[in-house]
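>> received
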Amino acid sequence: MYELDYVEVYDLVMRSRGKDYENEAAEAGRLIRERNPEASSLLDAACGTGLHLRFLVDLFERAEGLDLSSDMLAHAGKTIPGIPLHTGNMCDFELKARFHAITCMFAIPHLRSGQELKKAIRRLAHHLTARGVLLIEPWFRPEEFIPGYVADDTVTQGKRVIHRISHSIPEGKHGDRVRMTVHYADAAPDYGIRHATETVRMSLFTDEQYREAFAAAGCDAELVQPEHFPRGVWIAQRRQ
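>> returned
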């Protein structure tokens, strides 16, 4: 995928979807400060190309990013110069710094099991200060998933056209895993048409799995329904 400028293609497609990253970041900042009014430091975990982080940096005195992909971070570094960006897996990363708040937007469904969910939330909570706030954007619950779901996106940038299509089916004996096949077609006058296909596996976590993971990490949590997050967000606060 990466040999076909995947990171750039991903960023262009995500920006084209009508998702309001600026207002989502503002809403996240508001929710965090409702629970920790003095919050001045933030880590955006699994920040990707910095779609939210580029707005979060204006809301906190110190903002940093973490992602497993060094390619994604390199792209983020071009759009948000001077911001500390760390390569690491949210299940086992270790930074010297601690933060008043940590956000994780959408990336949680990429975890492979309920055990990994517990491990990731425990690691994120470990990097919070006392009474620090953890904000997590979930994906679909198991009962909300539509087998065979097809999604498509088309992006036009000058004479360049990118088309992304995906097809998702349930996987695993409990139906709590999803196999998504994604195909990209990228066309421009100078290089013609390029194609790439990838398979992504994602998890459908229940509310109870989230609650158990937050409790195991020593956090009090609630699922709230702010305006700009159609599936809500989990807000957790470290007890000490």
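>> The domain at 2-141+204-238 is CATH 3.40.50.150 (Rossmann fold).
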